[in-house]
Amino acid sequence: MWEKIINCDNTYDGLFYTAVKTTKIYCRPSCRSRKPKKVNVEFFFDMKEVEEAGFRACKRCQPEVEYSPHIAIVRNVIAFLVKNHRQMLVLQDIADHVGVSCYYLERLFKQETRETPRSYLEKIRVDKAVHLLKYTDQTNLEICYEVGFQSTSNFYRVFKRIHNCTPGEFRDHLRSKQDELA
């Protein structure tokens, strides 16, 4: 558990809490506050238990809140990306929308989702492209620009990274499946 708090590992949030005897404060394992001396730390598996022991919640990581204190910002970013996926977006546009700095946004988004806003936007665009490949007769070029990619090479590269095939191969595979069913 000590290693988890040193590494600020958020996968253990809610499974245990670290309480610092000298400050009488308890935190999530992922709290970014300065780390206490190991001898001053107690571990608890239940929030009620740690509060009954006389510890109060950290104001930085807010362990008493069931979800991450930053989830509202992340949801706002995701909604913005889905709504504006066809536009050319840079990180500054997204940061301006949610009212934080670019650096903070990228760090926070990656911490919560395990990916950058750019990679998340690319996944949204590829998902939209898959839908169009399945249900329309648009060309790959038309789909590329329809979903918001600015270049075909980037569209093909990202699509292949996510689906392990090109858009054309994906559509051919869909058609061969439909022919088998018919």
UniProtKB/TrEMBL annotation:
SUPFAM superfamilies: Ada DNA repair protein, N-terminal domain (N-Ada 10) (SSF57884), Homeodomain-like (SSF46689). Transmembrane segments: none annotated. The keyword Zinc-finger does not apply. Residues 75-173 form the HTH araC/xylS-type domain. Its cofactor is Zn(2+). One of its GO terms (biological process) is methylation. Keywords: Activator, DNA-binding, Methyltransferase, Transcription, Transcription regulation, Transferase. It holds the Pfam family HTH_18. GO terms for molecular function: methyltransferase activity. InterPro entries: Ada-like_dom_sf, Ada_DNA_repair_Zn-bd, Homeodomain-like_sf, HTH_AraC, Me-P-triester_DNA_alkyl-Trfase. The keyword Transcription regulation applies. This is Methylphosphotriester-DNA--protein-cysteine methyltransferase family protein.
